[in-house]
Structures are given as structure tokens and as C-alpha cells.
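From the methods appendix. Each design record in this collection lists the discretized structure first, followed by the designed amino acid sequence. Records were kept in a plain field format so they could be parsed without special tools. The example shown here is representative of the layout used throughout.

RECORD:
C-ALPHA CELLS (88 positions):
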């Protein structure tokens, strides 16, 4: 069976459990939104969710938030193919 995103419905027992997520709604200046859209157009392996996660996590890491989980989230958004950043 294939999911809506094109992946098959099989479950990989060795894959780590995904982190819980919540939805956010934010008002951003038009210029920022335009820049986000341009970045995503030029970098098709990025999407709005990955971009916002990387930006938030990067801001918190750079401003001294001492959380291993946060650092892993930041690194996982920058290097999605590196399994060691997705582990718990």
C-alpha cells in the first residue's frame, strides 16, 4: 500500500519514533515570506516546515539554550540524511 506522500505503508521497526509535533500559526512580514519562498524554490530539498524548524532551533542553540534534544533537532534539519541526529 502507498501513502499519500508516495511512501509504502510498511513500518520499519528499527526506525526511531518520531518526535511529537505541534502546529504553529505565525504572522510574518511579506519580505520575510517572499525570501522564504525564494529560498525554497532555489533549494527544492527544503520545505517551509524544515526551514522554520531549522530557523527556530538554530536561534535557540545560538542563544544558549542548553538542550541536547534541541541541538539534535537543529542538526537533523541541516543534515536530514544523517541518522545519528535523528536518534533519541
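DESIGN:
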Amino acid at each position: 500500500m502507498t501513502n499519500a506522500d508516495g511512501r509504502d505503508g510498511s513500518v520499519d521497526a528499527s526506525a526511531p519514533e518520531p518526535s511529537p509535533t505541534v502546529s504553529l500559526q505565525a504572522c510574518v512580514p511579506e519580505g520575510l515570506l517572499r525570501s522564504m519562498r525564494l529560498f525554497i524554490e532555489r533549494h527544492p530539498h527544503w520545505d517551509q516546515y524544515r526551514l522554520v524548524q531549522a530557523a527556530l532551533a538554530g536561534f535557540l542553540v545560538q542563544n544558549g539554550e542548553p538542550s541536547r534534544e534541541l541541538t539534535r533537532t537543529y542538526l537533523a534539519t541541516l543534515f536530514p540524511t544523517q541518522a545519528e541526529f535523528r536518534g533519541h
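APPENDIX NOTE: The longest helix spans residues 48-62.
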